[in-house]
Design brief:
By secondary structure, this protein is mainly α. The chain contains 3 helices and no strands. The chain is elongated. The relative contact order is 0.19.
């Protein structure tokens, strides 16, 4: 699912409070992933960086799943 579809789903949700909460979760999780992808922490080994990126991607995927399941 692309960002346009996710945003359309959030905009069409009847529960505006939930939509705002899910949008905040999406912003937080995608910002965390973005920072990791830039890899600005030279103290991380490649494997540590990859593990953190995988975990951050799973968080983003989980938020998107919650958005898709919301009414």
């Amino acid at each position: 699912m692309d960002l346009e579809q996710v945003m359309a789903k959030l905009e069409s949700m009847q529960d505006e409070e939930l939509a705002v909460e899910l949008l905040a979760d999406l912003n937080r999780s995608s910002a965390g992933l973005g920072k990791l992808l830039l890899n600005l922490d030279p103290s991380l080994s490649t494997q540590e960086w990859k593990n953190l990126c995988d975990k951050a991607q799973k968080e983003v995927d989980e938020v998107v799943r919650k958005i898709n399941q919301a009414k």
